[in-house]
Write a structure and sequence with these properties.
Length: 476
Amino acid sequence: MQTTNTPLPKSRLQLEFELPPERLSKAIDQAVGRLGRQTRVPGFRPGKAPRVMLERYLGANAVVEEAVDHLVEEAFREAMTEQDLLPLASPEVEITQSEEGKPLIFKTIVQVRPDVTIGDYEHFGFQPEIKPVDETMVEKVLDELREDQGSLEPVTDRGGEKGDYAVLSFVGTRDGVAFPGGSSDRMPLILGEDRLIPGFEDHLLGAANGDEREFDIVFPDDYQEESLRGQTAHFAVTVKDLRHKALPVADDAFAKSVGKFEDMGELKAELRKRLEAGALDRARHEFADQVIEYATANATIDLPDVLVDQEVEVMHDELRSALARQGLDEATYLKVVDKTDADIHTEFRPQAEKRVKTLMVLSEIAKARGVEVPDKDIEGEIERARSRYANNPELIKYFESERGRNYIRSTFRRSRLVEQLVDEWLAAHPDFPRLPHIEDSDDSSPVAQPAAAASAAIGATDPASLSPQEAAQAGA
C-alpha cells in the first residue's frame, strides 16, 4: 500500500492511497462471501450463491462497491495506525479508480488531532498582585453582616422612601378597561429597585401605609410584553404595608451575637483576617490565569473545527444549565434576547476556540513535564460524582466510562501543572508572601466544575485526552 500525505488548514490531512490489484481481488472474494450470507437468492442456500447471481439480484456493481467500501475503511485504519495519527471525525472519501485488475486508488480528507508547538511558559515578567485590605473594606463587610441581621419594622411616622419594603395592590387599565397582567392584590417590592415599569415606583415615594395613589405610565418601547410597548396605562395603587429594615447597632453586643467574639474589636480583627486570606486566594487565582494566558499566547496550534464545534456545544449546555437554575427555559430566553441557536453558537465560537487552545496547550506542557495523576485520585473523583449527581445516573455513567475517566485525568493534569508553575515561581521568590493552594478548595474538583456536567450531558471527549478509540468517535 502506498500513501501520500498532504497537510491542509484547520489540522486536516489529505491522504492519497494506491492499493495493488491483488488486494482488491481478495476484497472482492470476501465481499461475495459477506453478501451471500446476508442475501437470500432464490434457489441457493445462504452463502452459496455465486457472484454472477448476486450481481443479477443486487445490481451489477454491488459486489465491487461492497469490496471497495470495506477495503477503503481497512486501508484508512492501517494508515492511521502506521502513522500514529488520531482522526477526529469520519474521513471524506473520493474514489479515483476501482476497476478490477487495476490498483485501487482513492484519497481521503480527515481532521486529525493537531500538533501543539509549545513556546515559553516560564519566563514571564509579571508577578501576583495582592490587593491590600483597608478599614473601608472591613466596614463594608460589617455593614453586610448588620444587613443580614436586620429586621423589618413598620413605618409609622413618614411616607415611603427608597429602600423601604412595600406591599401593594393595584389595578391597571387602558381606556378604562383592565388588561391582562396589569393587576395584583399583593405585590411585594423594594421601593427604588424599579422591578415593575420604569417610573412606577417614583409615584409611590412619600406615600404612607394605607395611602392610595393614581397615575398614568407609558410603557417603554422595549417592554417584554409586545402589545404594551409605547402604550399609556392608568394605575390605581394602594399601599397595604410599608416597612423599613432596622439594622442592629455595631457594638459589642452585636459582635457577641454573630459569633464567639468578646467585643467589636475582636470581630473586626476576624473580618480583616478573612479579607486578607481572600485577597491572597484571589491573587493566586489571578496569577494562575495570567500564567495560563502567557503559555497559551506563546504556543502554536492549528485548531480543527470538530473540536471547536464540540466546545461550542459544551458552552451551549452550560448556558442551558445556568438558565434552568434561574427557572428559565431556553426557548423563553432566546425569545427575550431575540436570538437563535445559530446566533448563540456564533457568539460562543471565539471563546470556544480560546478554550480548546488552552486545554490542548496546557495538556501538552503537562505531558512534556511528566505531570501524572494517580489512579486513586481518579477513583476519588468518580466517587464524588456518584454523591454529587446521585439523582442523575447518566452523568455518573459518563464519569465511570473510559471517556469520563480521561476527562477527569486531563483536567487534573492541567490544574496541577498550573499549580506547579505557580509554586515554582513562589519558591524562586522566597520574599514574596505565601499564597494558599487553590487545589485545597472545591474549585480543583474536575466533576464539580460547570463544564463537567455540560461535557457529560453531550458525551464530550476532552480535546487533550483522545485515545485512538475515542478519536474514532470524537466527530460523532
